[in-house]
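User: Some background: our group keeps a shared notebook of sequences we're curious about, and every so often someone picks one and asks for a predicted structure to add to the entry. Today it's my turn. The entry only has the sequence so far, pasted here. Could you supply the structure so I can complete it?
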Amino acid sequence: MSRLGGNLQPLLSALRLPGEWLENPDHLLPILTVGELLARAADQVKCEHLGLLLGNRSSVAQIGAVGQIMLLMPTVGKALEVLQRRLDLHDHAAVVTLRRQGAQLALGYSLFDGSFPGVQYIHDAAISIGLNIMRALCGPAWKPQQISFAHRPPANPKVYESFFDAPCQFDSLCTEMLFPAEQLDAPLYASCPPSSEHGNQRITAPRDWAERVRSATYMQLLSGNCSQQLIAHGLGVSVRTLNRRLAAEGASYVEHLDRARFAISRMLLKETDMSIKAVSQLLNYSDAASFNRAFRRWTGHTPLGWRQAHQARS
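Assistant: Of course. Here's the predicted structure to add to the notebook entry:
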């Protein structure tokens, strides 16, 4: 902030945060507070790409034990599997997505709730951190083939293209980077020897089935192909077993699908200029009318009315 001529102190005061709060990495902020802080900071210094700059100051070390475990893996693909499956150890507000597009792989980051202020800057920071993670895994010369952003184009898209040294696409379903899928089989550029602190870490299952299904549902929806059968298969159980375990926790697949669709639709309506029809198709609705009915049930408003109201506030 200081390098951009800004002053963080009044922003912290406005959010009732102690001035020294950010100096301690053990202090965790609610994601809504992070978004609000970033939105106010970007407005103060008039910097649309503030998230990229902040993310660029981070590395694989910033994701704690998850990062350490990643560096113990034999290949890039195995390391990214750790990131996708165990981000919840470090970040409870989002999922990491890995999806194939022909000969390419897309590595992305998506918030569970994308309807609050500052989402653009959080996604930008996350994909910038992702760039540094990939360079830690593949070497400092690594670069993506393309970057997609789940927000509107900035005033100067060339800043983004220059930052990543790659073409950038906006108004997308996911914030993600594309690279050759064959890189998954490559050994790590520089592996980390086991340490007394992290060398014996084990990747354990999430706390409950509801959490696992929530993450899997988001990932499948964002990949463009979501079904209960696919989710059960990915979790290594039958559909019947999945339903039984969810029921034991007072949850259901239909509820998780409904919540994921609601959250993703709000993010796309607020952060992008994607058409209502395109949003409905991406969320696997049979037509826009079905999506309109669902959105009215969730909010009491049509998607267009909700979009207009929330864009006016931002």
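Suggested note for the entry: Residues 193-206 have pLDDT under 50 and may be disordered. The CA atoms of residues 173 and 282 lie 8 Å apart.
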